[in-house]
Amino acid sequence: MPVSLYKHPKHLVAVDCIIFGYEDDELKLLLSPRRFQPAQGEWSLMGGWVQNNETVEKAAERVLYQITGLKDIYLEQVHVFSNPERDPGGRVISVVFYAMIRIDRHDKDLLKEHGAVWWTFSEKPDLIFDHDQMVEYAHEKLKLKAGYSLIGENLLPEKFTILQLRTLYEAIFQRKFDPGNFRKKILSLKVLEKLKDKNTTASKKGAFYYRFKKHPEEFIHERIVKQ
Predict the structure, then answer these.
(1) Domain boundary among 110, 126, 148
(2) Which among 147, 177, 149 is positioned nearest to 163, based on CA atoms?
(3) Are residues 175 and 81 part of one domain?
(4) CATH number of 160's domain
(5) 50: domain range?
(6) Please, is 6 exposed, middle or buried when counting C-beta atoms within 10 Å of its C-beta (0-12, 13-18, 19+)?
(7) pLDDT in tens, the chain (227 residues)
(8) Number of domains in the chain
(9) Quick check: is 179 in a domain?
(10) Which of 100, 119, 148 is the last residue before a domain boundary?
(11) Selected catalytic residue, list 113, 136, 193, 217
């Protein structure tokens, strides 16, 4: 006689999304106050429950759309957090994803509706449960990706200067890069297209704008940044 599956323990499955953005030369993180107990009112990642008719990936996409109004967001799984005591409210297994979005494209009214706030990454508040550890894992994965591929396409405007790209990388890695070496390395990858127009806000001479070629990762065969 087959053993009934209903005799086995049942667990809740959630998704938590670490949402990275970039604005004013700062890497930012989208957070919101938790709306229910335990830890109601404390700062939390954006997340939700996995429904019966969806995969964890679809659940994460749904959560992101409900909060930002955006689809086709870059999304990557980070880790599964399954410590039995991680959530004092019950036995919850969380599948964690990180996303990168253009802050200028999201729906600001939706953010207000959810009480969501962009925090500068270096100044984020303490988060509930194990969410700080989730952010740490996601940040390491973001740096790893940035080290092997040019990720500005998901965070920068359509056209940008090399300085703007370097400033983004400095925000991600939380350290400075030598301007000359960075420029030489990035241009050697041949993944950027130089445009005719310039940004003249920093100097009269100006700096040429660039944009990403199609499928830039296909051209990268060596590490961009050594951690």
Answers:
(1) 148
(2) 177
(3) no
(4) 1.10.10.10
(5) 5-148
(6) exposed
(7) 455 666 778 889 999 999 999 999 999 999 999 999 999 999 999 999 999 999 999 999 999 999 999 998 999 999 999 999 999 999 999 999 999 999 999 999 999 999 999 999 999 999 999 999 999 999 999 999 999 888 888 999 999 999 999 999 999 999 999 999 999 999 998 899 999 999 887 666 789 999 998 765 545 556 778 76
(8) 2
(9) yes
(10) 148
(11) 113
Amino acid at 18: I
Residues 17 and 126 placed together within one structural domain of the fold: yes
Residue 226 inside a domain? The answer is no
The pTM is what? 0.91
Print the SS3 string covering the chain.
Answer: CCCCHHHCCCCEEEEEEEEEEEECCEEEEEEEECCCCCCCCCEECEEEECCCCCCHHHHHHHHHHHHHCCCCCEEEEEEEECCCCCCCCCCEEEEEEEEECCHHHCCHHHHHHHCCEEEEHHHCCCCCCCHHHHHHHHHHHHHHHHHHCCCHHHCCCCCECHHHHHHHHHHHHCCCCCHHHHHHHHHHCCCEEEEEEEECCCCCCCEEEEEECCCHHHHCCCCCCCC
How far is C-alpha 165 from the chain's CA centre?
17
- What is the structure's pLDDT at 222? 62
> Is the domain of 43 the same as that of 136?
yes
Q: Does residue 20 lie within any of the structural domains?
A: yes
Task: Tell me if residue 113 is catalytic.
Answer: yes
Same domain, yes or no: 65 and 163: no
